[in-house]
Amino acid sequence: MAKILCVLYDDPSTGYPKSYARDEIPAITRYPGGQTAPTPKAIDFTPGELLGSVSGELGLRSFLESQGHTLVVTSDKDGDGSILDRELPDTDVVISQPFWPAYLTAERIAKAPNLKLAITAGIGSDHVDLDAAIEHGVTVAEVTYCNSISVAEHVVMMILGLVRNYIPSYQVVVNGGWNIADCVQRSYDLEGMHVGTVAAGRIGTAVLRRLAPFDVNLHYTDRHRLPESVERELNLTFHTSAAEMVPHCDVVTINAPLHPETEGLFGEKLLATMKRGSYLINTARAKIADRDAVVKALESGQLAGYAGDVWYPQPAPADHPWRTMPNHGMTPHISGSSLSAQARYAAGTREILESWLAGTPIRDEYLIVDGGRLAGTGAHSYSTRM
Ligand code: NDP
């Protein structure tokens, strides 16, 4: 029998919801490109419920306990003596979400001799030390595509929010004011601007598709080039590197995974090559940008705005400088955890567990590390230090 340790974010401060703003969510069965949404044998939750917080338990308890497995759910993941650290030594499976990551460092993996599977209930497994997982034979899997469109929608929202100066203008209303000039002195149209994405995978391509009707000039860079038909359809300009692309752009959106190739990419040097007054949107991972270089670029006006929802560490400390830097549009890490996305990643987590517990293969597209090497999506999109 397996012990499954599930690390989730806390319930709402007002308690676990008894009702919701909407009665249903659209049923998404297939993603762009044809991949099917998760196909577990069954689910024990109603799509649209809060599943990502501790009381939601990703809807897993009755499924696991009915088969005799043990499920431990906690939000206590950091600091000496955390429940995560206490439970880890005899845990077989760790489930964690990037929004509230259980950092599975090499030290923690070394202290978890039973650990066989680390599931990311979402996308982005950089909170797991992939080299250590490879070394210790731990399989790493994530629910590929489950929230890619959720994030793409958030990116478009944040681009428009920054360029049109939405947040300060909203604040004027809340504060009882009406100074139009206060609002519009930093407000522009997106139309005609040059927008580039670093990475055109599932999220990056969805962002490009959503922005095309805004009559902008679209750019991208990626390790693999998109099919010519897509480049033509969206009128894309391909660049061989981020360094080559960013000087041409008014808006840059980062949509690559965090791995050794992308860590620290947006440092002082690259930011200095962007047009003065550019906007940078990062919903990928905080460490792809240099924390202090971003603050400096906003203070000097080199960047006109920075928005995103990814921080390091998470949760971000109260004094994190990105909370107070000028002209930012940060949110906590929420873009991939809408109630719509939760239904998909809870179902995907269950699908992965059903496969693993039955000894049948996990879908190749869900795999990041397997059999002591990068596998599936991991082999395509990640790199290791080794
Ligand atoms: P995909 O795997 O579909 O796409 C990632 C893309 O990044 C691939 O096209 C890959 O290239 C490309 N890439 C990798 N390394 C580089 C590099 N050095 N330079 C340029 N491109 C690179 O993943 P998604 O689009 O679904 O997600 C992307 C990332 O977004 C996730 O890894 C995660 O970190 C983040 N994310 C954030 C969420 C949030 O809530 N804020 C939720 C979901 C994801 P190729 O495969 O062609 O080699």
UniProtKB/TrEMBL annotation:
One of its GO terms (cellular component) is cytoplasm. It is an enzyme of class 1 (oxidoreductase). Substrate binds at I123, N147. GO terms for biological process: formate catabolic process. The record marks R285, H333 as: Important for catalytic activity. GO terms for molecular function: formate dehydrogenase (NAD+) activity; NAD binding; oxidoreductase activity, acting on the CH-OH group of donors, NAD or NADP as acceptor. Its EC number is 1.17.1.9. Its main location: cytoplasm. It catalyses: formate + NAD(+) = CO2 + NADH. The keyword Transferase does not apply. Catalyzes the NAD(+)-dependent oxidation of formate to carbon dioxide. Formate oxidation is the final step in the methanol oxidation pathway in methylotrophic microorganisms. Has a role in the detoxification of exogenous formate in non-methylotrophic organisms. Homodimer. This is Formate dehydrogenase.
